[in-house]
Amino acid sequence: QVQLVESEGGSVQTGGSLRLSCAVSGSTSRMAWFRQAPGKQREAVAGIYTNLGSTYYADSVKGRFTISQDNAKRTLWLQMNSLKPEDTAMYYCTARQGLGGTWRDANGYDYWGQGTQVTVSS
């Protein structure tokens, strides 16, 4: 069993930065951040294979967002820089315990956080 508890998001202006965190209990093989804006499908933002430390990013956030974890694998972060209005969404931390699947596939995750709102104003 894995429990995920996300920090509060926030509101910033265009170009600003925010860091999201997700407290993790239980073992995982892969974790990711997804987001969902009103009227849009949930999309993968960034993923990390927790044992290897390899990271992956959506093209829309590459170079601006960084996913990372602490050494104990008890906290997952998403550092978001150069934020744009189109980054406005509910952000979710998610985890998978087993192997297989791809980091972008929301159906491949077993556990989800409660979601946290990020709002970027122009």
Round the mean pLDDT to the nearest integer and report it: 96
The run of helices and strands is EEEEEEEEEEE
Ranges where pLDDT stays below 50 over 5 or more residues in a row are none
Radius of gyration: 13 Å
Give the % helix. Answer: under 10%
Shape: globular
What's the β-strand tally? 11
User: Could you tell me how far the N terminus lies from the C terminus, measured between alpha carbons in angstroms?
Assistant: 40 Å
Strand content: over 45%
Structural class: mainly beta
Report the sheet with the most strands, covering strand number, pairing sense and barrel closure: 7 strands, mixed
Number of H- or I-type helical stretches? 0
Task: Walk me through the structure.
This protein has 122 residues and is mainly β. The chain has no helices and 11 strands. Strands 2, 4, 5, 6, 9, 10 and 11 form a 7-stranded mixed β-sheet that branches. The radius of gyration is 13 Å and the shape is globular.
